[in-house]
Design goal:
Chain lengths: 174, 213
């Protein structure tokens, strides 16, 4: 995590991969107990990863990483349960088996559609994220491609990720 | 969307971040809040005019000391609560101690005064002004603190909100102490302590709504 905070992309990827496995296991076990699907666990895993990413400055390197991650994971779980309680208890009983019978293999896709979520972002943020985060261009290249200054690219990526995090949460509320 | 895709998106061109930002931004928010509180009191009420001798400086300093004793641990806990899992590292008891200490002072000071003077000591001349002003002045510091904490990641929203209210109430009371001419211990214990508690309660109720992320 320390290397990741300093901006080491490789270390960060390794860390997120490891955390995602932990988070997935955590959410699956918690949600399975109350009969929720693996897709929901995957949604939550992604939401927690987004939260870890956009709030990574709140991690204090002097402290252990695990309690910090689990505090976020737990917060997102409680928030999610509170949000979905009403809609989920409305499900007719006949559907219950179908929900319980859902396959939960590792490659479960979440219900979040990145392309769709991206298309809802303001134009500048979408282009900045597309260039820097998806096409893997450097900030300098992205700046010349999008016709923005370097700092504008950085700001738009940052704001765009925050907006994405918010819209992932919103989508489920509907 | 697959989680691997999300991870590769997040880890591509990752920006370095500064973990000291939490403490630094909160300090800035506190200073801005203090400036707002003192500024409001100075502009609306004007400073006290009766502080001419060294001896007359002691009671107002005592009042400021009282608010600071609550303010300092309150702010330290707020910086902990602003981080995920911080609620495990904060105890409410330590912040309640100054309150108890002052209540003890009140009991002592009342013990020396005859019963017939008690009412005057508690109500003073401007208890209503104090009761209304402190929460009103606290609104600006409270908003600044909440806005700052929203950039962080508190995981116990009610408690974080309560501490934001406590700190804002203390800042406001400190500013108001520069104006208020009622220096008796029972007066400021009851009305300052009471209004700070009121701000804390308001923060506790508002926290879950204002701080969600």
């Amino acid at each position: 995590m320390r290397a990741s905070l300093a901006g080491d992309a490789h270390a960060y990827r390794t860390l997120l991969n490891r955390l995602s496995a932990n988070l997935r296991a955590y959410y699956k076990s918690r949600l399975a107990r109350i009969g929720r699907s693996a897709t929901e666990a995957e949604d939550l895993t992604q939401e927690a990863l987004m939260a870890i990413h956009t709030r990574r400055h709140t991690y204090d390197p002097a402290e252990a990483l695990t309690p910090w991650v689990y505090a976020i994971a737990r917060y997102k779980l409680i928030d999610h349960l509170r949000r979905t309680r009403a809609s989920m208890t409305d499900l007719p009983i006949e559907d219950a088996e179908e929900i319980l019978a859902q396959d939960d293999f590792v490659g479960t896709e979440s219900a979040n559609d990145l392309t769709k979520l991206l298309s809802e972002l303001p134009d500048k943020m979408r282009r900045a994220i597309q260039a820097v985060k998806l096409d893997g261009l450097s900030v300098v290249e992205a700046a010349s491609q999008c016709g923005m200054s370097e700092s504008a690219v950085k700001v738009n990526v940052h704001r765009g990720l925050k907006a994405l995090t918010a819209s992932i949460g919103r989508e489920k509320r509907i | 969307m697959k989680t691997e895709d999300l991870i590769s998106m997040l880890s591509t061109n990752v920006e370095p971040v500064d973990h000291r930002r939490v403490v630094r931004n909160l300090c800035l928010a506190l200073m801005a809040g203090a400036a707002a509180a003192v500024g409001t009191v100075y502009v609306v009420f004007g400073p006290r005019t009766d502080l001419t001798t060294m001896g007359s400086l002691v009671p107002p300093l005592l009042k400021v000391a009282f608010t600071l004793i609550i303010l300092v641990p309150g702010s330290i806990y707020l910086t902990r609560l602003a981080r995920p899992g911080g609620e495990r590292k904060s105890s409410v008891a330590l912040v309640a101690l100054p309150f108890l200490g002052v209540m003890l002072l009140v009991a002592v000071s009342l013990g020396f005064a005859p019963t017939s003077h008690w009412k005057g000591r508690f109500l003073g001349d401007e208890w209503l002004e104090c009761l209304i002003s402190i929460p009103l002045i606290a609104i600006v510091p409270f908003s600044v603190i909440i806005w700052t904490v929203r950039q962080m990641a508190p995981t116990n929203l009610a408690r974080t909100g309560a501490f934001a209210g406590l700190v804002a109430g203390c800042l406001s009371a400190t500013g108001y102490a520069l104006h208020c001419a009622d220096d008796t211990v029972p007066f400021f214990a009851l009305w300052y302590g009471g209004t700070i508690a009121l701000c804390t309660y308001a923060g506790w109720r508002l926290g879950p709504k204002l701080l969600r992320w």
